[in-house]
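Entry type: protein chain
Record version: 2
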Amino acid sequence: MSDRGGGAERHPAADAGTSIAWVTNVGAPYRHPVWAAMAKRSDFSVGLLADNEPNRQWSGDLPAGVARMRARAVAAHRGEFHLYLLWAPLLQRSLDVLILPGWESPASWELLAEAKLRGVRTVAFYESSSGSHRFSHGPVAAMRRRFFRSVDAVITVGAASRAAVLGFGVDPDRIVATQNTVDVRSIHEGGQGSAGVETRAHCFGYVGQLIRRKNVDGLIEAFALMPGSARLVVAGEGPEEQALRARAAALGVEGRIDFRGYVPYEDVPGLLSEFATLVLPSRSEVYGLVVIEALAAGLQVVVTDNCGVYADVHELRGVFPAQPSPGSLRKAMLASAAAWGGPLDQPAVLARTPEAMADDVLRACAVARSNR
């Protein structure tokens, strides 16, 4: 989906000979299908600043056919914030376009400067909205505006992130919108499961990190208000795990909550097939791709309006909006259980293919190359 609010759609996608590198913190497995699709359409490589980060157990592997650029970087981790500093140049091959990692890291500014010196066009990928910004004013906000005004094109993932980028003063003609996605077809095939419709109706699940802003404590409090037949699977790891287990015990529901721990990404479709409703109860969430995964698997979802994904899915079948409070979450969970009639056969998100997203990214690269 190209940006229909600006002039980006007038530019064709990058041709097969375009040399593109996408630099990112770690090789998130949900990006692999998009990268594989890009490798079929261009001279494409991925640069990873690290093989892994705290609270994640991803490997540094990339999909077949995708070359890796070797980055030499040092990292500083504090909570959810991961900052990287390159201590050697990364662009050691001829490139046409460089897709940059998040603007917050010193490495992003280093790469931006290196690209400008070498005449390489730059693209920024932005998922956030103005509602998820920690700094709306002051020097940090000024640096963010400067970064996005300095790149040649920006990819956004919905109306909220596009509005935020426009607020930075970026020309609409340099913005290309896409739809954030995963390997929806494979997840759909693997997430149907064999459990009966009634068996799954009152089964709820959470998949993600166990950290404060995810509001898993609020979910547990909401679950404690549910009928005794309800069950909850909590899959993930993080610093809040022991506190969450203690809260479940204090509320008397520890026997109805299955703390599953870390689940490898390739096993997520099978995990999703165990329940009817995925709950993303976050107090704050830049996006929330797990909602797309759950919908692709045919599940219903309860998602708070603080999540970036909310604007993209709240009108879709099987989506039950909520606020982060336990009372609101409980109401949405009860509504989802009452509406459950089995996995959705053809959920709307199946149209969000990795190939379609790859086409949009390539279109953004063409926009960047046209800004000379």
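Comment: The first strand starts at residue 19 and ends at 24.
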